[in-house]
Amino acid sequence: MYLLDSTIFLHYMQNGENTKQVEELLKRIHDGRMEGIIAYDAIITIKDNLLKANLVRQLGVFFEAITEFSNLHIYYLSMVEENYVIKVMFKFKIGYLQALHYYIARKHNIKLISFNEAYKKIPDIKVVTP
Predict the structure, then answer these.
(1) What tens digit of pLDDT does each residue of 16-50 get?
(2) C-alpha pair distances (Å), 3 with each of 20, 37, 72, 123
(3) C-alpha dihedral sign at 82, 87, 90, 91
(4) How far is CA 47 from CA 9, 20, 80, 102, in A?
């Protein structure tokens, strides 16, 4: 099981330099060869980014696509967990999504898949690229 950062999907949708790697990762999840988790808040971040860029059609494609992934689980935080994430933000002086991903990765003892170099500064989690 792996935790997917929102940058994975954004890279793919924007035809980033690592599109082939992301495509293979998403194919492994879609085909059932791998399980993934994405935080609901990360989905909202993707939605906000696509709406700001007026990419409504791509947003529809994104929502449709993730519903077809039976091995991609959406993680919803409780209020207690939200409060813990805020504490992590202050402890490591990091942003909300980074703290959120730290929390989920630590709680479930799973690796985070991300292109964001900032995660490498955060102790106690393993970060890999696709």
Answers:
(1) 677 788 889 888 998 889 999 999 999 999 899 88
(2) 19, 5, 9, 16
(3) negative
(4) 11, 22, 25, 21
Residue 78 CB neighbour total at 10 angstroms: 8
**How far is Cα 60 from Cα 46, in angstroms, rounded to an integer?**
12
Name every residue whose Cβ is closer than 8 Å to that of residue 97 and which is 6 or more positions away in sequence.
5, 6, 39, 41, 42, 45
The number of folded domains in the chain is: 1
* Owning domain of residue 43: 2-128
d(CA 124, CA 107): 11
| CATH number reported for the structural domain that contains residue 41 in this entry | 3.40.50.1010
Its pTM stands at 0.88
| Token representation of residue 43 | 């989905």
